[in-house]
Amino acid sequence: MFGSVGRVFSGFSRRFTAAAVSLNSDAINLLHHVRLLCSLGHLLEALKLFYSITPPPPLVHSHHTYAALFHACARRSSLPQGQALHRHMLLHNPNPDFDLFLINHIVNMYAKCGSLDYARQLFDEMPERNIVSWTALVSGYAQHGRPDGCFKVFREMLVWHRPTEFAFASVISACGGDGDCGRQVHTLALKTSFDSCVFVGNALIMMYCRSCGGADEALSVFEVMEFPNLVSWNSMIAGFQVCGYGNRALELFSQMHFSGIRFDRATLVSIISCLCEMGDGLEYCFRLQCLIIKTGFISEIEVATALVKAYSSLGGEVSDCYKIFLELDGRQDVVSWTAIIAAYAEQDPEEAILLFRQFLRECLAPDRHMFSIVLKACAGLATERHALAVQSHVLKVGFEDDTVLANALIHACTRCGSIALSKQAFDEMVSRDTVSWNSMLKAYAMHGQGKEALQLFSRMDGQPDGATFVALLSACNHAGMVEEGTEIFETMSNNHGIVPQLDHYACMVDVLGRAGRIFEAKELIDKMPIEPDSVVWSAFLGGCRKHGETKLAKLAAAKLKELDPNNSLGYVLMSNIFSIDGRFKEAGLIRKEMEGKTVRKEPGLSWIEIGNHVHEFASGGQQCPEREAIFSELEKLVRRLKDFGYVPQISLALHDIEDEQKEEQLYYHSEKLALVFALMNLGERCYRGNIIKIMKNIRICVDCHNFMKLVSKLVDMEIVVRDSNRFHHFKEKVCSCNDYW
Fold it and tell me: What's CA 628's distance to the chain center, in Å?
């Protein structure tokens, strides 16, 4: 790197030469100012001032200044500046006297900056070493993830020196999650009495917490520490959090707080992270927020961001998340912006997009994670134009080859109804992982293109996983490909080593049930090696409802109510089955049972984007924009459709909406209202091509399905409806599902 390393030590002498030239007071003051700048963290200014001193001061007078500069380079991991300083020293001091203090700083700089091979070369040529020399090298290997080198130097050091607490802490941290290795070092620390050192104890706590099941051993170390400091408490709390022991972390935090030990933001971030994994975390989150506000930590970016993430993951109100976000008062960074956008992406994707635009207006630079969150929000909207706009930003900042973002784009385009754009994004990927293939398989599944999914799977060059086969089984299910689905289910274990899990069984039960093979589906459930969950029973109940198997439907509904008592599906489907059979009394009893148990049926809602605004419609027309005008246009459309062959399917509609028993009520389903509103605003649409896209939160009923087919022919347009299960593409009186859904 700099020629012969031996030049650094040529002309060794343990004393500076007596003939050293003295410095004037100006040079002495400048060197003092350089060291002061280093201590304040102003490395570049310090180097600039040092290089400006003419003539360069000899090493005998400047070795402390060189040491301070090398130390500053090490702290900032500034290898280029450190190398330049080293060259400067050799150029102006071609035959330096050996200075162990200075050479230790040089070795430390190279080690801390990651140039470990050169640091080791310098170290090996040192005529004399002390404990600082060894510790610098051990620490460098540990900090840069080189455990083998760290252990090797540590073993060599034991021959010459008794390790310091810093060497022990470094080699312990290098153990990572290797508990056996860590226990060996711990034993040595016990023999040499270094286990009582706080620095070593803290490293042991984190080492044990990273190793499998080491929380109890970590706690044993913590409990024997005579004077644990804040880092000790934080390490133990963070350790419990890493090991998934949120309750124990909360107990320790309470002990810490009531003992009068002051916590810091690291403490709070660990505790908040624990809450995200607890069932009753939202209640604790409210309490903790009060403490955070009281102690003034609410203005800390890391703490506020962690709170936003916690409220979002625990199902809190996004308005509460936004209030916390605003507490940062203009000091938000990309992480805090990503957190608040992620919170809205789940519950209000349109607002998430608006927040992203605001972020861009403030001239902040989005990272990959933010783009993936924004694309996730785009997936919750009706059209793909938002996803395409985000993609243009991705291309602009140079992330076009990022696999994770390409996967997110496939998902967004799929959910927005454009299978063509999903395929384009997939085909243009530079490299694909398993998630990429799974995303495209899911796209084909959602759009009912089972054959295309199987063809894609035959070309898959990655290793399939459990999600791959869920996508394949879903594709077969939505396309009515029963035999193909059965074959995939039977061979996934033998050919690919994937053991079927609950979601695979649920898909297979759905495949058989929708095809009318109810008893085969029941036999599959009975043979399951794991206990069927509510998803499996709801799939079976759906098949029973479709094919009128009342007796088995009762069994499935009872199981569903037992496993998921707050889910309205079991009550609603049984009520509909009875209604279709004309057993209105029994249907009424089920509805009364729902009311008695305060189980609520999810209301039917639909959304459509007109211009730049998303409009929401509820069944019955409540809070409907331009309600009277829509109802009037709908009545005209129904009359035209009746001339076109439309017959309202009252009895069939009852399996979805138990209270709508009159023909007129069928007209006011949310997707019909959304469709009419779109037809009234054709001039303001901004869809790609001649397409109307509607989103719906529950399964589309048979009557609305027939309605959409006829309207697509009447107005000569493609109508795309995304319901809770899949996409329906209506065109020329035909649906892409082939009436199988």
Answer: 45
**613-618 and 605-610 strand pairing:** antiparallel
613-618 sheet: strands from edge to edge: 613-618, 605-610, 691-696, 718-722, 727-731, 734-735
Which residues contact residue 704 at a Cβ distance below 8 angstroms, ignoring those fewer than 6 apart? Answer: 669, 671, 672
Q: Write phi, then psi, for 722 (nearest 5 degrees).
A: -100, 110
Convert the pLDDT of each residue in 581-626 to its tens digit. Answer: 677 777 778 777 777 777 777 788 898 888 778 888 988 877 677 8
Q: What is the pTM of this model?
A: 0.74
Region of 388 please: left (phi>0), alpha (psi -120 to 50) or beta.
Answer: alpha
**Phi, psi torsion values for 727, nearest 5 degrees:** -105, 145
Nearest to 706 by CA among 658, 655, 666: 666
**DSSP structure string for 135-171:** HHHHHHHHHTT-HHHHHHHHHHHHHH-PPPHHHHHHH
Strands 691-696 and 613-618: unpaired
Q: Where are the alpha helices (DSSP H) in 397-501?
A: 403-415, 419-427, 434-446, 450-458, 466-479, 482-496
Say how far apart CA 295 and CA 409 lie, in whole Å.
42
Cα–Cα distance measured from residue 660 to residue 231, given in angstroms and rounded to the nearest whole number: 64
- Cβ 735 vs Cβ 711: under 8 Å: no
pLDDT of 457: 95
With cut-offs at 50, 70 and 90, classify the pLDDT of residue 11. Answer: very low
Position of tokens 């109802």? Answer: 631
Tokens linked to 267: 């403490």
Q: DSSP letters along 599-624, please?
A: --PPPPEEEEEETTEEEEEETT-TT-
Q: Answer yes or no: is pLDDT of 68 > 50.
A: yes
Question: In this structure, what token pair is assigned to residue 243?
Answer: 């090991």
Longest CA–CA separation in the chain, Å: 114
* CB count in 10 Å sphere of residue 602: 12
C-alpha span between 538 and 560 (Å, rounded)? 7
Three-class SS state of 228: coil
The pLDDT tens digits of the residues spanning 514-543 come to 889 999 999 999 999 999 999 999 999 888
| Cα separation values, 44 from 40, 73, 444, Å | 11, 10, 56
Phi, psi of 129 (to 5 degrees): -135, 150
Rounded CA separation 609/677 (Å)? 10
